[in-house]
Design goal:
The chain is α+β, with helices and mostly antiparallel strands and 132 residues long. It has helices at residues 16-29, 40-48, 63-72, 102-107, 115-131; strands at residues 2-3, 7-13, 33-39, 55-61, 82-88, 94-100. Strand 5 (82-88) and strand 6 (94-100) form a beta hairpin. The longest helix has 17 residues, at 115-131. The chain starts with a strand and ends with a helix.
Length: 132
């Protein structure tokens, strides 16, 4: 796993479909479901008539943690769900998974009182990327 300034990244062997399935399973094991799934390559083909490598954005949500955050501040929903991207690396048979760091994501709120919640989400997301 590599740390980005704003997330975590891992390169894996396999296809985008296979890795997306593994990510979804790992998210589930940490209490997250995938609320949204954006197929960027398909959207670019349809809307722009351009080819783009396979690239998917998954919006992951843990209902209990989201409820806790939204109970503190309703506008925190602007920072939800947690984004996970799965995409072709450019090398045959290699896929990259990147997860936005929830601590960085929630830090923009300026709410220091939700630090423990952000830490818990971060720990779970790190376990997800380690598990895949």
């Amino acid at each position: 796993m590599n740390e980005l300034g704003y997330g975590f990244k891992k390169t894996l062997p396999g296809s985008v479909d296979e890795i997306e399935d593994r990510v979804t399973e790992a998210l589930h094991s940490e209490g997250f479901g995938v609320l949204t799934r954006i197929d960027v390559a398909s959207t670019f083909r349809k809307k722009l008539d351009v080819d783009f490598p396979e690239y998917r954005i998954l919006g992951a949500c843990n209902p209990a943690l989201a409820h806790a955050a939204l109970s503190e501040e309703r506008d925190i929903g602007l920072l939800l769900p947690c984004n996970v991207v799965v995409y072709e690396s450019g090398k045959a048979g290699q896929v990259i998974v990147s997860i936005l760091d929830p601590e960085r994501q929630l830090a923009v709120s300026g709410r220091n009182d939700i630090g423990d919640l952000a830490n818990e989400v971060r720990d779970r997301m790190k376990r997800v990327i380690q598990a895949i």
